Amino acid sequence: MRIVLVGPPGAGKGTQAALLAKTLSIPHVSTGDLFRANISQGTELGLAAKSIMESGKLVPDEVTIGMAKDRLAQPDAAGGFLLDGFPRNVAQAAALDEILAEWGIELDGVLDLEVPEDEVVRRIAGRRVCRNDNAHIFHVEYHPPVAEGVCDECGGQLYQRADDAEDKVRVRLEVYHTETEPIIEYYQKQDLVTTISALGTVDEVTRRAIEALRKNETQRKNDDEG
To answer: Which of the residues 50, 69, 170, 172 is marked catalytic?
Structure first.
């Protein structure tokens, strides 16, 4: 299956992408991983991205698209992939369509994780991270530490990252609504979008996602045969 995962910050895209990719036996391709890999390997695109980011500017679409194309051309993606964070806007979505058309393949579906805005703010603004180990993450409501402000794992101090402050979260949501959300309408015109609720436990959302993708796959096959 070839899938694009879409959803606002705080929807759990990274968690769901990893679980869905494992279940479907396809590679999880995230924008963050693309940038880290290209920069660490010193590729031409990676060096360009690093230079642009160090100057404080946004990486242009053509650089991101080039990285995505190179990644999807690798052998492990021949049988399918799950894209997380790409495409980020309509221009990137159109470029992806052109790449896939060039290769004679197409997307199987776009999974839209839907979360109410207030819940997004609650999820992100409530996060607390350990100063000793960023992998130790708690939440003031959903996963509080035993002792307030103290990491259960190592006793380190818990703090709220600057990007997790409510005002910053709302700015990130506005950017999502302006830049990324329009790709949902773009793909709806191709009858590719399936929207599911991202509320509930991780396992509940994963089951919901798998059922939706399987149903969509069956429907598309029936339509093709019809």
So the answer is: 172
